[in-house]
């Protein structure tokens, strides 16, 4: 081609999203929830012209191909209308070219092509994906298989420069009286105790508070790549009142914690068995893993430590929101035949910063009598001073993260040594359950000294042991089981975070800070400067970095060392 090729990817269903890949390595990705402010907002007709195109400049340029994916919901029935919307909204260089691929294949293309590996085994596991009729790969699925059977897990051999080989899938008929697979199991476990989509992380955080032997429930039944849910678990999932503690019912915290512990252990053990089967089938050194279950950091840490794979790569957008990126990369490599040089070196794939929106937000802040707007000569040093003094500081900079983890461009930062910092952020800033862990930022060169880790971990995807001698000194990031979901920080990809950690370490001797997502109760990650300013003024957060400015609450008081939440813990 004599011009830079452009492929657009669109995820039409849960965690609706769009992505654009242009040329050898330019990529943009944006989730619908960041624009509508509704977490896990599903894709629908109208998103492309009214939400995505106005926000992503790349969608206003000529494109070559659009690749989309659906899941197991009914949106695929409107495929003709979706295709017409594409033709009406986007400008194609040639004739409109629209391709649909399976949900799991889109997950795979978000994971392997941008991974550091030249070859790898691929594992995609989530609740439910595309029906058989929508598959773009057979995986041995015969013609006699009913077309409405849904994929729940898919397994691949991947080699750079060649299409991946799908050699196995677990399928499900969608009957909730007979649920199957690891994703369905964890979904049912979560829905028994919590409401709303995306609450699986609550179960993972709750599990260390429970006894995994409390009820003597059996492990999941694993046969090769297939995972079945024993009847004993289905019977427990029917006991809604017993486990209603977090739903306002009479259930007890202890019962919920014990069930979370048993469920997490069953999930981890079954996942390790499936991973062992996959290694036996492929004999490959490395693994890429995506789908909703790949957000389970505790299980991921065990795969890294205990599986036969030498290394594991999990994309920062392992969830459904990342499938748009997978679609775009599929379009670039398989439809247009162009190599993609994009690699997951960071997750800052959102739109380019809007200078006008930043200026308007800082002007609005300056007009507020309770706020002070500064422009420090040494921004990192000034923020390190505030953190040392016990203040909680938001960070809004650059392009937003595409995945669900805040990695420094839309983050809330605090002092990991502070004994009350976790409770204060959970109760007063995030408005969430007290047992939820907070993650650490750590200078990459210091990480092996403080954590049991021997490699970079820049995407907050692994739960790693905090070395015992450092646990008491870092109470805000050390979970009850002694682990932490670390993010290692290097200057190449996160220069401000690195400068902040260096400044904080010089002041305190500690190269670790708390990092959690910049959002208030029930909200997704902030996207615009206005969103982040609203988070500052609507929560107990004390200050907000909005490069190159620092916005402070005029009369804010730091978190006292002995601060306690207004409601007690069980």
Structure overview:
The chain has 17 helices and 22 strands. It has 570 residues and is α/β, with parallel strands linked by helices. Strands 13-22-21-14-15-20-16-19 form an eight-stranded mixed sheet, with helices on both faces. The protein has a five-stranded mixed sheet with strand order 3-2-1-4-5. A five-stranded mixed sheet has the order 8-7-6-11-12. The mean pLDDT is 96.
List the helices and strands and how they pair.
Elements: E1 6-11, E2 17-22, E3 26-31, H1 32-36, H2 47-55, E4 65-69, H3 79-89, E5 98-101, H4 103-111, E6 119-125, E7 150-159, E8 165-172, H5 182-193, H6 200-206, E9 221-223, E10 226-228, H7 231-237, H8 253-282, E11 286-290, H9 297-306, E12 311-313, H10 323-335, H11 355-366, E13 371-374, H12 379-388, E14 393-396, E15 410-415, H13 421-430, E16 439-443, H14 447-450, E17 463-465, H15 468-471, E18 483-485, E19 487-489, H16 495-508, E20 512-517, H17 529-538, E21 543-546, E22 549-553
Parallel strand pairs: 1-4, 4-5, 6-11, 11-12, 14-21, 16-19
Antiparallel strand pairs: 1-2, 2-3, 6-7, 7-8, 9-10, 13-22, 14-15, 15-20, 16-20, 17-18, 21-22
């Amino acid at each position: 081609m004599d011009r830079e090729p452009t492929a657009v990817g669109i995820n039409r269903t849960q965690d609706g999203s769009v992505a654009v890949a242009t040329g050898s390595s330019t990529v943009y990705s944006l989730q619908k929830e960041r624009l509508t402010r509704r977490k896990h907002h599903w894709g629908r007709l109208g998103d492309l012209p009214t939400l995505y195109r106005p926000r992503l400049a790349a969608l206003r340029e000529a494109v070559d191909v659009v690749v989309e994916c659906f899941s197991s919901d009914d949106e695929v029935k409107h495929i003709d209308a979706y295709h017409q919307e594409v033709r009406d909204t986007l400008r194609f260089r040639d004739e409109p070219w629209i391709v649909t691929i399976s949900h799991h294949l889109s997950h795979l293309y978000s994971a392997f092509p941008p991974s550091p590996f030249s070859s790898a085994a691929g594992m995609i596991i989530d609740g439910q994906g595309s029906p058989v009729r929508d598959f773009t790969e057979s995986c041995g699925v015969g013609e006699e298989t009913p077309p409405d059977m849904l994929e729940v897990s898919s397994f691949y051999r991947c080699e750079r420069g060649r299409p991946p080989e799908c050699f196995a899938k677990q399928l499900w008929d969608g009957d909730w009286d007979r649920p199957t697979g690891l994703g369905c199991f964890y979904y049912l476990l979560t829905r028994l105790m919590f409401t709303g989509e995306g609450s699986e992380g609550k179960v993972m955080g709750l599990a260390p508070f429970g006894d995994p032997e409390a009820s003597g429930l059996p492990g999941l039944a694993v046969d090769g790549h297939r995972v079945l849910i024993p009847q004993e678990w289905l019977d427990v999932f029917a006991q809604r009142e017993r486990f209603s503690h977090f739903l306002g019912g009479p259930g007890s915290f202890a019962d919920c914690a014990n069930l979370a512990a048993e469920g997490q252990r069953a999930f981890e053990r079954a996942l390790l068995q499936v991973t062992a089967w996959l290694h036996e089938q492929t004999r490959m050194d490395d693994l890429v893993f995506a789908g909703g279950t790949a957000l389970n950091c505790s299980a991921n840490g065990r795969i890294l430590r205990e599986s036969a794979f030498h290394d594991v790569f999990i994309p920062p957008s392992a969830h459904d929101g990342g499938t748009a990126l997978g679609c775009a990369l599929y379009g670039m490599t398989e439809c247009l035949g162009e190599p993609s040089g994009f690699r997951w070196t960071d997750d800052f794939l959102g739109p380019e910063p809007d200078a006008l929106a930043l200026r308007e937000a800082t002007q609005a802040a300056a007009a507020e009598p309770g706020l002070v707007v500064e422009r420090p000569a040494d921004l990192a040093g000034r923020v390190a001073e505030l953190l040392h003094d016990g203040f909680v500081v938001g960070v809004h900079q650059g392009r937003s993260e595409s995945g669900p983890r805040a990695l420094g461009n839309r983050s809330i930062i605090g002092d990991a040594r502070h004994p009350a910092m976790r409770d204060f952020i959970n109760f007063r800033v995030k408005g969430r359950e007290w047992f939820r862990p907070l993650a650490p930022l750590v200078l990459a060169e210091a990480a092996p000294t403080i954590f049991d880790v021997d490699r970079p971990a820049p995407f907050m995807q692994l739960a790693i042991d905090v070395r015992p001698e450092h646990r008491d000194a870092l109470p805000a990031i050390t979970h009850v089981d002694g682990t932490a979901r670390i993010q290692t920080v290097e200057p190449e990809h996160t220069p401000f975070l690195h400068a902040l950690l260096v400044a904080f370490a010089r002041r305190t001797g500690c190269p670790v800070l708390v990092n959690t997502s910049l959002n208030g109760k029930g909200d997704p990650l902030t996207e615009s400067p206005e969103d982040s300013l609203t988070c500052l003024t609507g929560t107990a957060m004390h200050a907000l970095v909005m490069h190159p400015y620092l916005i402070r609450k005029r009369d804010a008081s730091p978190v006292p060392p002995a601060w306690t939440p207004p409601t007690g813990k069980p």
